[in-house]
TrEMBL record:
UniProt KW keywords: 2Fe-2S, FAD, Flavoprotein, Iron, Iron-sulfur, Membrane, Metal-binding, Oxidoreductase, Transmembrane, Transmembrane helix
Higher taxonomy: Bacteria, Bacillati, Actinomycetota, Actinomycetes, Kitasatosporales
Membrane topology designation: Multi-pass membrane protein
Main location (coarse class): membrane
Record protein name field: Oxidoreductase
GO molecular function per UniProt: 2 iron, 2 sulfur cluster binding; flavin adenine dinucleotide binding; metal ion binding; oxidoreductase activity
InterPro entries attached to this UniProt entry: FAD-bd_FR_type, Fe3_Rdtase_TM_dom, FNR_nucleotide-bd, MRET, OxRdtase_FAD/NAD-bd, Riboflavin_synthase-like_b-brl
Location(s), subcellular: Membrane
Amino acid sequence: MVARTGLYAVLLANAAVVTYFFAQAGFASNTLIVLGRATGLAGALLMAFQLVLVARLPWLDRRIGMDRLTSWHRWTGFSVLWTLLAHAVFITFGYAEGTGMDPVNQIIDLAETVEGVLRAVVAFCILIVIGVVSARYARRRLAYETWHFIHLYTYVAVVLAFTHQVAAGTTFASSPAATGYWYAVWGVALGSVFVGRLVLPLWRNWRHQLRVSAVVPESDNVVSVYVTGRDLDRLPAQAGQFFLWRFLTKDRWWQANPFSLSAAPDGTQLRLTAKAAGAGSAGLRHIKVGTRVFAEGPYGALTTMHRIRPEALLIAGGVGVTPIRALLEDLHGHAVVIYRVASDRDAVLYDELRDLALAKGAELHLVTGPAVPDKLASGELARLVPDIADRDVFLCGPPPMMNAVLGSLRELNVPKPQIHFERFSLAG
């Protein structure tokens, strides 16, 4: 909560500073141009904020969570797109009003005569393409690697937009203070990305030298991969978190997939367990022992760090049991575990979960059967866990199941701060 409030406060404070410099620079006589400049500044500030959201900074991720950061990233991205569209429309029609040109010829004229405008047009076109592929319909039909590769062009758009602001921004050059402020904003934003997305992953992988130590099939379509390395006791990973894994073979080095830790880190090895849902996860069982691993992370806030109650309820669906199993290993206090699967044969890691629950004194409920009727409806949850409103609830599973359970928890009046879940989406 403190991190979220602080992030909002920083954004609002910067919005106030931008407004001050905008007013200090003076207003054009044409209202449309004034609106165009205002929306352009708003778009620039939102774009810088967007970079901080996608930087995957550990401090923010641990306290806010990749899910929430990804949600903010999505909405901020569309806000940037619409704000810059308004900027382009207002500026074009504003100048067209003074020159008598039609809007299309006015854009062409500005691109040809004003330094930086052509770069802004190219940047905006790139952002439109990224916005289209980020729409839910398109996103569901693209492989993660394709989506991620297209998203990398965001950085090209950012650089082009920044150079446009330097060359043509009236407010940017209105005073040394304004110029210094904007350089600082972009410096922090780009620096965050440089550190979080490049320096930190390279440093950690150089330091820990990760390698595959074992590959263990758990069932026909589920496999566990054990990874060892140097100084793993100094890797800041917690039960419930996930990494973005790359296995450095000739045919897989370019693929990066998010998989949870399926066992609490013990300082000597890491374990991930994945179900074959695509070419990337299906190929895990063929990885050879000794293969070098490049891991980005750890990410996610589904950890004990955010507990506020002494007792817990852990709800897993399908292969979503992996972070839940790791969390149970790390939890203190009484816990109830509910594992929802279609049939007994789908209960991945169930033997481990049962033995761990016995050792920890936890209650374990294996709930099987088809999705309908809902066996985790509010009435069923209240029957299995009568004191559910007094527990922290950790949840992970397929999106439809998670959405249904979250609805049930609301019906049971479980306070929102006690509900912890992860969808393993990534910002940028």
